[in-house]
Amino acid sequence: QDGVHIHIDAKAQLTLLGTEMDYVHSTLASEFVFNNPNIKGTCGCGESFSV
């Protein structure tokens, strides 16, 4: 959308299948949020995950 291109490493493609990316803007922060239905677990801070 709007001419934005996303490049994904070929090794990561299977891990990211079904993942939705959204841009969230609020008064405190603006960030990309990834919703991956394949995640089996996350770390305490939510930055790392396992599939």
TrEMBL record:
Residue intervals of the Core domain: 1-47
MF GO annotations: 2 iron, 2 sulfur cluster binding
GO cellular component, one term: mitochondrion
GO BP terms, alphabetized: iron-sulfur cluster assembly
Protein's UniProt keywords contain Zinc-finger: no
InterPro entries according to UniProt: ATAP (IPR016092), ATAP_core_dom (IPR000361), Fe-S_cluster_asmbl/transfer (IPR050322), FeS_cluster_insertion_CS (IPR017870), HesB-like_dom_sf (IPR035903)
Pfam families reported for this sequence: Fe-S_biosyn
Listed PROSITE patterns: HESB
Keywords per UniProt: Receptor
Coiled coil stretches, renumbered: none
UniProt record similarity statement: Belongs to the HesB/IscA family.
NCBIfam families linked: iron-sulfur cluster assembly accessory protein
Protein name (Swiss-Prot/TrEMBL): Iron-sulfur cluster assembly 1 homolog, mitochondrial
UniProt source species: Achelia sp. PYC005
